[in-house]
Design goal:
Helix 6 packs across helix 8. The protein has 226 residues and is an alpha/beta fold. The strands form 3 sheets. The chain has a 5-stranded parallel β-sheet with strand order 2-1-3-4-5, with helices on both faces. A 4-stranded antiparallel β-sheet has the order 6-7-8-9, covered by helices on one side. 40% of the residues lie in helices and 20% in strands. It folds into 2 domains: 119 residues, Response regulator (Rossmann fold), CATH 3.40.50.2300; 95 residues, Winged helix-like DNA-binding domain superfamily/Winged helix DNA-binding domain (Arc Repressor Mutant, subunit A), CATH 1.10.10. It binds calcium ion (CA). Calcium ion (CA) binds next to loops.
Length: 226
């Protein structure tokens, strides 16, 4: 069985450590992000079953992140951590796409129970697949099919395609793709994005990834594919 993955987004280091230890002990594969930028990178490059998101983050705040993820079609259950007694945070959070909340200070047991509940609720309800013409990308299984046939992609090719499909309404620059497809310590080279795009076009066998000269790439609109 594939272990369930939980992402913890919390900037208070001691609380993050405590949460990560308990969540790991409860049997989940756990990643941590200490700020919004790192969280955004992980959410776009990895597949999680639950995200525990502190709303009070330095830089990009949790609510903004959550809204961006939901707008990008990321449907992962999100449990928000709100400030004590802040009812408006709860309301904004739920309206912004959160599935549940826990107010600080909390007992770890309550967070774990809510994670279990979110996973139960999500089970049996497949994550929505992303479609572009004949291409279907299933984020929960990290798999891509074209006209129903499985296409084998490397992890980087998958990330490029996944990122483009999550942002299909706009043009994505090479720099942005480079920032989102590599692990943080990876030697980044934006020229290799072109190589991934070329391979993807070959493997998908359809003109679905458009080059927008000077700007970047965009998924073609299904209507334009005839
Ligand atoms: Ca915080």
């Amino acid at each position: 069985m594939v272990p369930l993955r939980v992402l913890i987004v919390e900037d208070e280091a001691s609380l993050a450590r405590q949460l990560a230890a308990s969540v790991t002990e409860a049997g989940y594969a756990t990643d941590c992000a200490g700020d919004g930028r790192q969280a955004d990178f992980l959410v776009h490059s990895e597949v999680y079953d639950v995200i525990v998101l502190d709303l009070g983050l330095p830089g990009v705040d949790g609510l903004t992140l959550l809204r961006q993820w939901r707008a990008a079609g990321i449907a992962t259950p999100v449990l928000i951590l709100t400030a004590r007694g802040s009812w408006h945070e709860k309301v904004q959070g739920i309206d912004g796409g959160a599935d549940d909340y826990v107010a600080k200070p909390f007992r770890i047991e309550e967070v774990l129970a809510r994670i279990r509940a979110l996973i139960r609720r999500a089970r049996g309800v497949a994550q929505p697949e992303l479609r572009c013409g004949p291409v279907v990308l299933d984020p929960s299984a990290a798999r891509v099919t074209v006209d129903g046939s499985l296409v084998k992609l490397t992890s980087h090719e998958y990330r490029v395609l996944s990122y483009l499909m999550h942002h299909r309404t706009r043009v994505v620059s090479r720099t942005e793709l480079t920032e989102h497809i590599y692990a943080q310590d990876f030697d980044r080279d934006s020229n290799t994005v072109e190589v991934f795009i070329a391979r993807l076009r070959r493997k998908l066998g359809a003109p679905l990834i458009e080059t927008v000269r000077g700007l970047g790439y965009r998924m073609a609109e299904p209507a334009e594919q005839g």
